[in-house]
Amino acid sequence: MIYFDNSATTKPYKEAIDSFVKVSTSYFGNPSSLHGFGEKAERLLKQAREQMANLLGVKSNEIYFTSGGTEANNMAIKGTALMHRSRGRHIITTKIEHPSVKETMDQLQEAGFEISYLPVDAAGIIDISILEKEIRDDTILVSVMHVNNETGSIQPIEQIGHLLKYYPKILFHVDHVQGIGKVPLDFYKSHIDFCSISGHKFHGLKGTGALFIHEGVDIAPLLSGGNQEKKKRSGTENTAGIVAMAKALRLTMSEMNNKLEQLMKIKTYLLNELSVIEEVMIHTPEHKSAPHIINFSLKGFKAEVFVHALEELDIYISTTSACSSKHSSASETLMAMGVTEMTAKSAVRVSLSYENTIDEARYFIESVKKTIAQLRKVMKA
């Protein structure tokens, strides 16, 4: 099997699974319990929090555990809106955000907030001068994803943070789900207030994630009850999943240090080979894009037909983001980049991990050519 759908989810590391099993069987106490067995679980939580904070270059008291990237995004955006609505009801985001941000903005708009959506250029990048023009006295939050989940485009997060430094009343949220472990990001240098990550995107287990909240920044909790996570996110902690996520992050950061160059070589090879195929139109920008994502359209073919054809060869890719791939509508991200609706409907995404090899890439290119030829014959028949 060749698995090229790592932006949808990754295969969990064996070490992460082993950690999950060990904690689930030997340290299953409730971290909030007063007895010693519960205290052992609490210590594991503390260690995982400290390990993740160290890997991310932040303080341990700035890490809040969630059920994943979707919850982290909702927590940052809605929590800010609820906390600061008396100060202002204007939020700025982009036209190419993940559905967990887009739909959160839709909900807030229905609740009386005003949302400004920044356009992007043909490479999927925003213009900071346009962002600055959208800032108003009642703006309370700017939310911009780091790496686009469909095209891999990288937003100028550090420059945005430097701009917002001159607007201290505006908080800055970054969806770092696709960038973590692939594209370095300095939270402090970028003046980020909130940053979302998801465990299953870096070989942890589904149902785990975290939100970085800069020290001194406050939000209204979305989940109330047991006062866990310093009252910002109530609910009994998923200790085993959190320990496994910390382990996966450590391994991923090590892989990034050792294998990033190899990953970039595979991406470059794929881009070069795909670019000479007549039916292929590449949407991922050559520069300012992540090393693991390639998005391209197949002229004259439906994306889902191509995905299933490759599946017959035991090769797995996707259409748009996993959260939207079962819907037949065209990618809003690609159309925001100026791609026609028809072309956007034929787009597919290849997303790599550090476990993929150049041999897999070569077989993939051969299979793409073979599949296009076969589909062309069927269409002419």
UniProtKB/TrEMBL annotation:
Q: Where is the Aminotransferase class V domain?
A: 2-362
Reported EC number(s) for this entry are 2.8.1.7
Q: What are the required cofactors?
A: pyridoxal 5'-phosphate
Q: Which UniProt keywords apply?
A: Pyridoxal phosphate, Transferase
> Does this entry carry the keyword Zinc?
no
Residue spans making up a coiled coil are: none
Give any GO molecular function from the UniProt entry.
Answer: cysteine desulfurase activity
Note the Gene3D superfamilies from the entry: Aspartate Aminotransferase, domain 1 (3.90.1150.10), Type I PLP-dependent aspartate aminotransferase-like (Major domain) (3.40.640.10)
Q: Cross-referenced Pfam families, in alphabetical order?
A: Aminotran_5
Q: Which InterPro entries match?
A: Aminotrans_V_dom, Cysteine_dSase, PyrdxlP-dep_Trfase, PyrdxlP-dep_Trfase_major, PyrdxlP-dep_Trfase_small
List the protein's name.
Cysteine desulfurase
Organism this protein belongs to: Cytobacillus purgationiresistens
